[in-house]
Design brief:
Elements lengths: L3 H15 L1 E2 L9 H7 L10 E2 L2 H10 L10 E2 L5 H17 L5 E3 L5 H12 L5 E5 L7 H4 L4 H5 L1 E5 L9 H11 L3 E4 L10 H22 L7 E5 L4 H6 L11 E5 L10 E5 L4 H12 L5 H14 L2 H23 L3 E2 L8 E5 L7 H10 L2 E2 L1 E3 L13 E5 L1 H5 L4 H22 L21 E7 L2 E7 L6 E7 L18
Parallel strand pairs: 1-13, 5-6, 5-7, 7-8, 8-9
Antiparallel strand pairs: 2-3, 4-10, 9-10, 11-12, 12-15, 14-15, 16-17, 17-18
Helix pairs in contact: 2-12, 3-4, 4-12, 5-11, 8-9, 13-16, 14-16
């Protein structure tokens, strides 16, 4: 039997067990969640939504549940998975203390965003969203994503301090009148104050109303969308301002700070429930993944435990400790610090790229990702920064001092890269035999001069350059020396 897959799953198990995981979008779910993913609902096709019969049965158990959205499956035999999906909806409303409608079916955060857009927009409509280069997600504004191909995307960014540019947001709302405005980010280390944004939007819409009234135009009223995929766990635990009550539609993943299975969720005001449900199925997706929906329900249960709130508190404390340590070591951070679970290390001026640091860290058992910084002169494939998150290693039990030590390890890796990239301190063409003592260190450079291979090494402690050589067989000595002590290396 070919055990190829089992072999690489085992290798991946070892990598995850032994590596320091700093990718901000990754985490380690509980064994109960992992076990739920391998249960029988995996086998059930359940296109559509729970039946009225199932809803009636569920409300007998949970009488405070109020159903919104579409009703009815396309397949029989769904009575058990109906109850699982209804329970998941109910529990997520508890997690965020909301009466918003909840759709558990998106396969990912990107699918959730696609469905949210499709519920309210037609191709060619205008969206205002955070620029990818400023910290937004691919599905918010990137030309290579479906969003950039289907819609007219107007990007906004951050100011010179790396903070959301509220003046730019307000000006572009007035100038472009986007049909939908997206708030949320993939690489933004500061808290998004949804209360302040709510006030800003209201003032901006009043200005638009005055202008439109004088021109005889209809009242302008955009859809407000929040993608809280990265910060959802912080919102759930009460350590970040909430978008509920402000946004018309809210998307998230369940596998980042929520520490659940890979997948997405959509919340919306009840009046938009059917729009969202139809956009998810049948517009964007077919059959839902019922085993994943069951695992999402378990994730919601865990997010209601008191221990989860303690966990999120520690995630934030760890991130702040690590950010402060990088600053002490002389590094710049985008926005000067962090308010959440991630930080952006600005490598400008270090002489290395985010891609180089990512690769070097991989070789040292530290996993992070290259990331562009605001106004980055480099392409995303190289990037001038790295994004670092603390959620995964906090799950493994890391505390503030552990993250300070990791900051120092990354600092040492940066120094090693810089050392390797330093220009040579010698001109190999000017080196003479016997001018330098032989050095036992690992050879730094190898040059071939005619029939002699010359090895040049540098003592990393003293900077001393050393020379040795090896004469090729059956050739005349290039150096024309009779020195019998010529080393054979």
């Amino acid at each position: 039997m070919n055990n190829f897959i089992e072999n690489y799953i085992s290798k991946e198990n070892d990598r995850q067990a032994n590596n320091i995981e700093l990718i901000a979008s990754e985490n380690y779910p509980s064994q109960r969640i992992l076990s739920t993913l391998s249960t029988s609902p995996h086998n059930k096709y359940a296109e559509g939504y729970p039946s009225q019969k199932s809803i009636d049965e569920f409300t007998k158990i949970y009488p405070d549940y109020i159903h919104t959205g579409k009703i009815g499956r396309y397949y029989g035999g769904c009575e058990n998975v109906d109850m699982i999906e209804l329970y998941g909806r109910y529990m997520w409303q508890k997690v965020f203390n909301t009466s918003y409608h909840c759709n558990l079916q998106p396969h990912s955060g990107s699918q959730a965003n696609m469905a949210a857009y499709a519920a309210f927009l037609k191709p060619g409509d205008t969206i205002l969203a955070m620029s990818l280069r400023a910290g937004g997600h691919l599905t918010h504004s990137a030309p290579v994503s479906f969003v950039g191909n289907l819609y007219n995307v107007i990007p906004y960014g951050v100011d010179d301090n790396g903070i959301l540019n509220y003046e730019e947001i307000q000006a572009k709302i007035i100038d472009y009148r986007p049909k939908l405005i997206v708030f949320g980010a993939s690489a933004y280390p500061r808290e998004i104050d949804f209360g302040y944004l709510n006030d800003l939007i209201q003032v901006t819409l009043e200005n638009c109303a005055e202008e439109d009234g004088s021109n005889g135009q209809e009242e302008y009223n955009p859809i407000i969308m929040v993608d809280m995929a990265h910060i959802a766990g912080l919102v759930a635990a009460g350590y970040h301002s909430t978008p509920f009550g402000f946004a018309d539609v809210i998307t998230t993943t369940t596998h980042k700070t929520l520490r659940g299975p890979r997948g997405g969720l959509i919340f919306c005001k009840p009046e938009y429930a059917e729009k969202i449900d139809k956009a998810v199925f049948p517009y964007c997706q077919g059959g839902s993944l019922m085993n994943v929906i069951a695992a999402k329900a378990v994730c919601a249960e865990e997010a209601l435990y008191p221990e989860y709130k303690d966990y999120i508190y520690q995630v934030k404390e760890n991130c702040k400790a690590m950010a402060d340590e990088f600053i002490k070591l002389g590094y710049n951070l985008v926005s000067g610090g962090t308010d959440n679970h991630l930080l952006l290390l600005d490598l400008t001026g270090t002489g290395i790229t985010g891609a180089e640091l990512q690769e070097a860290c991989d070789n040292e058992g530290i996993t992070l990702n290259k990331n562009t910084i605001p106004n980055d002169p480099l392409l995303a494939s190289q990037a001038s920064g790295v994004r670092i998150g603390t959620a995964a290693m906090t799950t493994k039990g890391y505390m503030e001092e552990d993250f300070r030590k990791v900051a120092h390890r990354i600092h040492e890796i940066i120094k090693k890269i810089q050392k390797l990239k330093e220009p040579p301190k010698y001109d190999i063409n000017s080196i003479k035999v016997g001018q330098y003592p032989l050095d036992p260190n690992i050879y730094k450079d190898i040059e071939v001069w005619g029939n002699v291979t010359v090895y040049v090494s540098e003592n990393v402690d003293t900077g001393e350059i050393s020379l040795s050589w090896k004469r090729q067989p059956n050739t005349v000595d290039l150096f024309n020396t009779d020195d019998a002590d010529t080393p054979e290396e």
